[in-house]
């Protein structure tokens, strides 16, 4: 079998497995790259918000009529849920979730699941870093239209939500293929 980097030795079990495809290791690597990119962009954006823009001092900056950068120290989980339960509980739960997702990624055979895992892993690690460094998550993206206002969130939160959405889409597509194919 050829991998993107050259010949790859095969074991008896791998060579005879009808489920293993040539691209499987590539999608796992893509998941790891997605996780690293999400983590990098998340941490760079938060560093810029805190030190470059000094958003904690400014509290809120209008970017567009529908977007502000608004400083929120989130001591809870996504969208402010379960606040007040202590940062170490969230750190431990997030670390366990990351470990579980790494196991899923290591076994993943589908592109969308690998990319979804990468997004969720990168986002979870980004928010854990915030909890360890600051005691809370740095949230700053605030979308609004007129009187309607969405929760304040960050790049990590976006990656987690998008990852869950991709995973649900993959499940839907697999289910649809099994009923129609």
From TrEMBL:
<keyword id="KW-1133">Transmembrane helix</keyword>
<feature type="transmembrane region" description="Helical">
    <location>
        <begin position="149"/>
        <end position="169"/>
    </location>
</feature>
<feature type="active site">
    <location>
        <position position="157"/>
    </location>
</feature>
<comment type="pathway">
    <text>Protein modification; lipoprotein biosynthesis (signal peptide cleavage).</text>
</comment>
<feature type="region of interest" description="Disordered">
    <location>
        <begin position="1"/>
        <end position="22"/>
    </location>
</feature>
<keyword id="KW-0645">Protease</keyword>
<feature type="compositionally biased region" description="Polar residues">
    <location>
        <begin position="13"/>
        <end position="22"/>
    </location>
</feature>
<keyword id="KW-0812">Transmembrane</keyword>
<keyword id="KW-0472">Membrane</keyword>
<keyword id="KW-1003">Cell membrane</keyword>
<protein>
    <recommendedName>
        <fullName>Lipoprotein signal peptidase</fullName>
        <ecNumber>3.4.23.36</ecNumber>
    </recommendedName>
</protein>
<feature type="active site">
    <location>
        <position position="139"/>
    </location>
</feature>
<keyword id="KW-0378">Hydrolase</keyword>
<keyword id="KW-0064">Aspartyl protease</keyword>
<feature type="transmembrane region" description="Helical">
    <location>
        <begin position="88"/>
        <end position="105"/>
    </location>
</feature>
<feature type="transmembrane region" description="Helical">
    <location>
        <begin position="30"/>
        <end position="49"/>
    </location>
</feature>
<feature type="transmembrane region" description="Helical">
    <location>
        <begin position="112"/>
        <end position="129"/>
    </location>
</feature>
<comment type="similarity">
    <text>Belongs to the peptidase A8 family.</text>
</comment>
<dbReference type="InterPro" id="IPR001872">
    <property type="entry name" value="Peptidase_A8"/>
</dbReference>
<comment type="function">
    <text>This protein specifically catalyzes the removal of signal peptides from prolipoproteins.</text>
</comment>
<dbReference type="Pfam" id="PF01252">
    <property type="entry name" value="Peptidase_A8"/>
</dbReference>
<dbReference type="GO" id="GO:0004190">
    <property type="term" value="F:aspartic-type endopeptidase activity"/>
</dbReference>
